[in-house]
Amino acid sequence: MGIHATEVTATTGRGRTADSEDAPLLQVKNLQVEFRTRDGVAKAVNGVNYSVRAGETLAILGESGSGKSVSSQAVMGILDSPPGFVTGGEIVFKGQDLLKLSKEQRRKIRGTQMAMIFQDALSSLNPVHTVGTQLGEMFRVHRGTSKSEAKKKAVELMERVGIPAAKERVNQYPHQFSGGMRQRIMIAMALALEPDLIIADEPTTALDVTVQAQVMELLADLQAEYNMGLILITHDLGVVADVADKIAVMYAGRIVETAPVHELYKRPAHPYTRGLLDSIPRLDQKGQELYAIKGLPPNLLRIPSGCAFNPRCPMAQEVCRSEVPPLHAVTEADGTPIEGRGSACHFWKETIHG
Amino acid sequence: MGRYVIRRLLQMIPVFIGTTFIIFTMVHALGDPVAALFGDKAPDPAVAAQIRQQLGLDNPLIVQYGDYMKGIFTGDLGTTFSGQPVTELLKTAYPTTLKLTVVAFTFEVIIGIGLGVLSGMRRGHLADTGVMVMTLIVISIPTFVIGYVLQYLFGVKWGLADATVPEGAPIQSLLLPGFVLASVSLAYVARLTRTTIAENSKADYVRTAVAKGLPRRRVVTHHLLRNSLIPVITFLGTDLGALMGGALVTERIFNIHGVGYYLYQGIVHQSTSTVVGFVTVLVIVFLLANLLVDLLYAVLDPRIRYA
Prior knowledge:
The complex is a heterodimer of chains A (354) and B (307). With 354 residues, chain A is α/β, with parallel strands linked by helices. Chain A has two domains: 26-244, 3-Layer(aba) Sandwich (Rossmann fold); 254-281 and 289-353, no CATH class. Chain A has 13 helices and twelve strands. Chain A has helices at residues 68-76, 103-109, 121-124, 131-143, 147-160, 166-169, 179-191, 209-226, 237-243, 261-266, 271-278, 318-322, 348-353, and strands at 26-37, 40-52, 57-61, 84-93, 96-97, 114-117, 197-201, 229-234, 246-251, 254-260, 328-331, 337-343. In chain A, the strands form two sheets. Chain A has an eight-stranded mixed sheet with strand order 6-7-8-3-9-10-12-11, with helices on both faces. A four-stranded antiparallel sheet of chain A has the order 2-1-4-5, with helices on one face. In chain A, β9 and β10 form a beta hairpin. In chain A, α7 (179-191) packs parallel to α8. The radius of gyration of chain A is 21 Å and the shape is globular. The N and C termini of chain B lie close together (5 Å). By secondary structure, chain B is mainly alpha-helical. Classes of the chains: A alpha/beta (354), B mainly alpha (307).
């Protein structure tokens, strides 16, 4: 686990300035998470690497159970433990390994320097407190602001995320808002203390399509305005295309492909990614049967040997059942490297070029 | 809200009439009160008839009930056979019962919720198992057994508390009976709290509170507890109504002259006016306690609004 011993100078300050222009805001190295359940150990995340820079959007794509949410919960430090345990790796945020910090130190980072937006805003907001209280709580707890000052800040935040009549609505409860407005409140809450990193876990899944676009747009605007790093967790390829800079595709707790967003759509280098793209309904294929990836996602208690995708893969060979493919650097057919691309497939060349 | 309260209060009228009539009939069906007045001796028929006529017991039941209801609305709950007005009896009994209620209820809230939170937060740990076993034992044993055992141990053997409650019922002598009275409900409160805490600690909004970087203490008090206590408070409210109805068993064991004690006397002596008078007041108290719970519910959970 100590293989990635890249030395990064630790910063103790809470300032926004990174140690150097190039250092990523967040670097996850060989992260491993397991759930110790009664039925056995479920390996939810098995050696995940990714990085996010300030102002950059990383989309993590995957089915349910692929480890996309679990890995981000590990980054936030809100993993349900037990049963969840981080068993290895590093989470380097602004130069310090979060896994080496005390619980209290990590708590102080949450909300102030990194924040999270959850999927279902109705259940994720506390039903018995007004939205004003819940927004103001960020200032009250982390900044020691007075009650009236916190409420004023809450109104400002609500106006910032485009909630009409914020002054009146600040005293209302979550159930009195529409789905889109509730998600805006979640965003406002994450944004409250202007964190450097926001993790959005399927922020638009619970919303209807027209509202989805508005919420994503708002998120992208705010990100640009505050120059935040954004991790967007989703299973919706459509949501990703417009806002993400780069994509990491996860399968059975591993990243199977990474690529800049448009590259991935144009020419996937992993059969799983190709399967996902082929299963999007398209207008020009109207009337034909929609493609679906055969089989089911693997049981995390018994991940198949070799490449975890092999039982479902149309290209699977003998080697796929025995050897775990590393994340190969993907190149053009003539060997020129492509910036930011990788594929954990033994046959990536055939997939992308063949 | 105001309309809701008025509607609820109006609904109490038929409930009130129904319960009093049922109680009235049932006490009547118990047997001849005049015969009971004379104890084991058979009364002289002429004397008995005279008493019946004096007390209006020779009228048909429905007329007797009508007379009684007329009395109630003028604040007259009738007199006992010994000539004491029932209202007098209530005035002496109620303060004692209220004191006992306060003591028992305090135990219930503090220990019950405390144990529930403790075990709910540490599910599967030793503390949790301990609380579960203890509460199961308390629930399984009848109150009178717990009462007599604790009375013997604390009051007689170790002399740590008064074995019986003296006249005037000072608070410190009510601690032991209060605990006995609270014991079963306390066990239920602990279990109920444990369940809702355990259930709610997995809720999304608790995860949000953690992700906001709130200290654990604040997550528990402001987010987890507030939501978890809603069903517990419903239970406590109903139980408060029940506690104020007096405790036949506990009051007998510790010789407390409260509502339960006089009610028991009334039943034994087949004193219609005592029993009906007391039960009528208890019904009203219970109905009001229920109304209070429902209103409290709306205060605790903003999603509930009455119109």
